[in-house]
Amino acid sequence: MGQIHDIEKLTDSKFVNLYHINATSVHNTPVSYFVASRAKSIEQMKIKTRENTPDGVIIYSLYGEKRDKVVLVRQYRYTIGDYIYEFPAGLVEPDEEFHEGAVREMHEETGLKFTPLKVNPAFEKPYFTTIGMTDESCATVYGYAEGEISKDAQEDSEEIEVVLADREEVKRILKEENVAIMCAYQLMHFLQDDEPFAFLKKEL
Known about the structure:
This protein is an alpha+beta fold. It contains 5 helices and 11 strands.
């Protein structure tokens, strides 16, 4: 196991910060590593707390009377200079329970009312997103959405189009569009499973 010597905070931003880690690898070679983190301070980083609390939520939601559509957002992302299809998602506020955060984020991004499902904790525990670059982890919340789409609660910095996709549209999106990987894998299940949430009822 490598040995970490010190960590330096390089930025002071609201949503994400860059940290520099000086370490020695298991092969006794020097390591200079950069980590993006939602943490506001070195003490709050997961490398220090050793606690995997969710920084954000990803919302896999079905829509419609037959629950045959999935709620997606087509969002412009500066990281690629293009649009990408994702599930509605967002950061969990301090002291906010992550299911409550999912309800809030769904309303803010889409205008829809979201009702989370109660599932085995293993399906919704926070998992790491891109561990080679960041200590960020997100919990996936599953459920059903209803209501009318609205952009009224979206932030001015967001460029989001809400998409209610049936299976044919999901097929097209997976073949032709940029798709976030965590969304893509779930959409593959959505295409193949008669009951998309059936796997949530299985024991792990």
